[in-house]
Design a protein that fits this description.
It is a single chain. The protein has a single domain, classed as Up-down Bundle (Four Helix Bundle (Hemerythrin (Met), subunit A)). The chain is globular. The protein has five helices and no strands. 68% of the residues lie in helices and 0% in strands. By secondary structure, the chain is mainly α.
Length: 97
């Protein structure tokens, strides 16, 4: 399949949205879970960081929330997460700050 590096990861990422309704009813937890999953599993050949960030923002906006940070702070945080230096709890704390 063109566009993915690991086809077996994509369905699990799609299922996360459905599962997170019950497992992560809080919008911040849900957004952090999907962000972490995509940024760490790299299901696409390109655009994993962008996709993870956009889905996180969309889920937050769905819950009438948003990230309060400068563009540089957002960029730096996404890069740090992609490098594996942030945990799920770090991501949740950053969203809430």
């Amino acid at each position: 399949m063109s566009g993915t590096t690991q086809v077996w990861n994509l369905p699990s990422i799609v299922r996360i949205k459905l599962l997170t309704e019950k497992i992560y009813p809080d919008p911040v937890d849900k957004a952090a879970a999907i962000f972490e999953s995509i940024i760490s599993n790299h299901p696409f050949i390109d655009g994993n960081k962008r996709t993870a960030y956009v889905l996180m923002r969309l889920l937050l906006k769905e819950g009438t929330l948003d990230i309060v940070a400068t563009e540089d702070e957002k960029f730096d945080f996404v890069i740090q997460c992609a490098q594996g230096t942030k945990t799920f709890d770090d991501i949740k704390a950053w969203i809430k700050s």
